[in-house]
Design goal:
Blueprint: H1 3-11, H2 15-37, H3 40-57, H4 66-87, H5 116-134, H6 138-149, H7 154-161, H8 165-182, H9 198-201
């Protein structure tokens, strides 16, 4: 994809060009939104809002990493929604089955080669990780999502979060520590590298 050409065409009024940008980044933007929001519906809404905002603000893009610019928009969209929810808390909705039980989210982890037991353990681990990430304050949540989940380098993550690189590193260190401690409740599912020893948990 010739990103800069698409951006220029979109600036010139080509909706097809902007749709090309959307298609290229929609999975990334959705995954970031989902990890920050912790709910599929909320992530979908944040993704839609982010792309609408990006289209409206495209003329404000001044070069540099377009990915970082776009992720800053989706991070802000998630921030706004999380603040709104704090003012008006709502219970997350999950689909119900015929017997009235809640259908748990399948997440995005599926491996056809894994055994049913391995799939179950992986799903449980991913659910625990997401729960721990969702428990973080927004600024720490965004840092760990951008760097550890999406694999952005510090400079791009800092740009996306709109903070200095030193700040993103500091927030990331604190976020990693809190998530690691949170995950000790499911230590049997964790790789050894993530397990705290007795001294670290006291």
């Amino acid at each position: 994809m010739d990103e800069q050409a698409l951006i220029q065409d979109a600036l010139d009024g080509s909706l097809d060009a902007f749709n090309g940008i959307v298609l290229h980044y929609q999975d990334l933007v959705y995954n970031v939104a989902y990890r920050i929001m912790g709910e599929h519906d909320a992530a979908g809404d944040a993704t839609q809002e982010a792309f609408i905002s990006a289209y409206q603000k495209l003329s404000q893009y001044r070069g540099g990493s377009f990915k970082a610019w776009l992720l800053r928009i989706v991070s802000n969209a998630c921030y706004d929604e999380l603040r709104r929810r704090k003012r008006q808390p709502i219970a997350p909705l999950k689909p119900e089955m015929d017997d009235g039980d809640l259908l748990e989210d399948p997440y995005w982890i599926e491996d056809d080669e894994a055994t049913p037991e391995e799939q179950t353990e992986e799903a449980e681990l991913q659910a625990a990780i997401q729960k721990c990430i969702s428990a973080l304050d927004e600024k720490f949540r965004i840092a760990i999502v951008l760097v550890d989940v999406e694999g952005l380098d510090y400079a791009t993550a800092a740009d996306a979060a709109g903070v200095p690189m030193g700040t993103i590193k500091s927030r990331l260190a604190r976020a990693r520590d809190r998530v690691q401690r949170c995950l000790q409740g499911v230590w049997e599912l964790l790789p050894d590298v993530f397990r705290l020893n007795d001294e670290e948990t006291t």
